[in-house]
Amino acid sequence: MFSIRGIRRATTVVAAATLMLGLSGSRAWAQAAAEPPDPNPGALTITGNIDFLNQYMFRGIRQNSTGMAIWPSFDLGIQTYSGEGGFKSATINIGTWNSLHTGDTGQDGPTGKLWYESDFYATLGLGFGGGFSFGTTYTAYTSPNSTFSTVKEIMFKLGVDDSAQLGKFSMKPYAIFAFEFDTEAGTGQADAGENAGKYLELGIAPGYTGYSRAAIAFPIKLGMSMGDYYELDGEDNKFGYFSIGGIVTVPLGGTGKFGAWNLHFGAEYQKLGDTTAFYNSDDDGDPQHNQFIGSVGFGFSY
Amino acid sequence: MGGPGGRARRLAAAACVVGGLMVGTAGAQSGGDPNPGAMTLTTTMDASNAYLFRGIPQDDTGLILWPAADLSVALRSGGGTLRSITVGVGTWNSLHTGVTGTDGPSGKLWYESDFSASAGLGFGGGVTFATAYTAYTSPNGAFATVKELSMKVGAPLYGVSPYALVAFELEGQADGGVVEGRYLEIGAAPSLTMAGAVVAFPVKLGLSLEGYYEGLEGDEQFGFFSVGGNITVPLTSEQSRFGRWNAHGGADFVRLGDSNALRLGDNTKVIISAGVGFSY
After folding, report:
1. Where are the alpha helices (H) located in chain A, listed in sequence order?
2. CATH no. for residue A62?
3. Range of the domain at A253
């Protein structure tokens, strides 16, 4: 289980949700008369994605060396409160995110099983005035093909959606704090280290939704250990990885009775720290500090 | 891996009963439909004392939990001979605290995770035909993956909703036998509505067409017979913006064939389950 989850959340979810909303917003004015009625005016929102990647990195930690990774995911959002004033919304999300590997940690590996990772998560998200949001997420990262031991984590995310202030542009800065718990030495930890890790991620996702046929974003993030998150030979390396990427999201038609569908492409470069480079060693055992990731996928929101 | 107490109950609760509740409460709805689009999400969470998959014992120790979700898409809905076309994907899971789960060799709770993709046709007169591909997998490694293609035809005859299901194992085997099996299930689920609740009495017979219930003396035709009763109580009296919620519970009496009885150590079993579900 290991950073593209970072990319995944920043690539796929941003692509499928935020960027699509941006596109919808930019076209709503012109299409008001032609838009079909909202197919889902209730309080539940369903989001699904399937992505195909050459490489799966979880917060900079490599998860496969060969083959392809396939990421089917599904999310159910329940808007429990929506109002005016300083406290604007409360939302509960539950979902599953999965990684299927054709290579050495999946079908071509010792287990011969494709299903490398299955995560369950539940999030309570609070929305405030000025675009500020605060989310608390519990995630259980499990491995159906038993490649890694289950990792349990509590994550807090503080973010700002500044698209209302910047129009078709946005920066969307955020900070993530994640804490592993219920661990033992070598068990229940992303780095398989001695102690439960504490993780910090800082990022922005500059984007533009001014084009009618696509939305673009350039997520940038920095992943660091606040304590024992990137352990290697008894040393906790603070710098985990730095990543910069680009995402293009193309809507497939408008929002109809089947929801809003999109096709999205992404590319990412990661600069790795000592621990993550060690896990990214080449065939000769030499740590590699650079990694490139390409992805393509479909998504829908209903 | 889904059976008299498992998948069949889930489908009954998720489709027939919820469908019945939807019809039953339609006239009382005061608000607008929160989901007039083409997608429907159905989820259930049930707890049970035992899990038999089509009569094949899986576990009757500890607590068994069945979380499930289905997303269906109505591609067509209207009049004429072919009235509806629906496709769907779903997952059904079985979590065990007993000897095949957390108390077992793996120490892991997640005994089974199934993925299914289905397509269904609805005809005039309520006749339905559905076909499904299902992959039954075991995250805790308790059994090898079974892949199956099934077809089901049903009709609302005489208010008892009879159906027939034929399933073909493509890879792997539910009975852990020598050859991939072919399975036939014939059943019905008469139901009635009382004071807003739906009471159903599902009856089913599971048979091997070939190699599905392999035992010590070769393939046995009779797999199981079950009769049960369940009740579904709506928790939302009208179509709320959070979907239609229900609480349901029931019991099944299962009479097993020889090979299944040998696995269980008894030729009968009573399965009790209860849970909550919603459809949106």
Report:
1. 4-7, 20-31, 163-166, 274-278
2. 2.40.160.40
3. 4-301
Residues of chain A in contact with residue B145, where contact means CB-CB under 8 angstroms, are 113
B141 touches chain A (CB under 8 A): yes
The structure's pTM equals: 0.84
> Do A31 and A84 touch, CB atoms closer than 8 A?
no
CATH 2.60.40.10 correct for B7-98+107-279: no
Q: Is B173 an 8 Å CB contact of chain A?
A: no
Q: What gap in Å lies between CA B278 and CA A48, rounded to an integer?
A: 19
Q: What is the pLDDT along chain A (302 residues), one digit of tens a residue?
A: 433 333 343 333 333 343 443 333 333 333 444 566 789 999 999 999 999 999 999 999 999 999 999 999 999 999 999 999 999 999 999 999 999 999 999 999 999 999 999 999 999 999 999 999 999 999 999 999 999 999 999 999 999 999 999 989 999 999 999 999 999 999 999 999 999 999 999 999 999 998 888 999 999 999 999 999 999 999 999 999 999 999 999 999 888 899 999 999 999 999 999 999 999 999 999 999 999 999 999 999 99
